[in-house]
Amino acid sequence: MGMNQSAKVLFLLFFLGFCFIMIANVSLIGYPALPFESKSKKEVTELLGENTGKIVKLTTEGNVDWYGYGPQANQATAAEAMKRAVTEKGWTFIQQEGAGYFFERGKEKMVITTQMWTGNYVLYRIPAGILKP
To answer: Is the pLDDT of residue 5 over 90?
Structure first.
């Protein structure tokens, strides 16, 4: 026995809805894992996409704040934005070694590490509270 017409239409609508959801998320499938677990890839790309050209707090895990910059970030522009945000909090940039950026404030020392994520975004691992408002 075949399906009646309304069952066929319902099945087709369900199938098309499923396909739409899969297509909407397929672009994130190839993205590498994030270095933190409290936000999804989709949440991070949406948050950074809404704040293009700005340093954006993504999450806090333990004693680390994760920030991001992008999309279509180039590392030099992203580094300048991060250094500017940190120096506005009273820190002095000392030097860069690889992905590490060294800062001082009085006798305090701090290292911020960066990493490219997907080739479009730069992620920053910053000690918690450094960029708090």
So the answer is: no
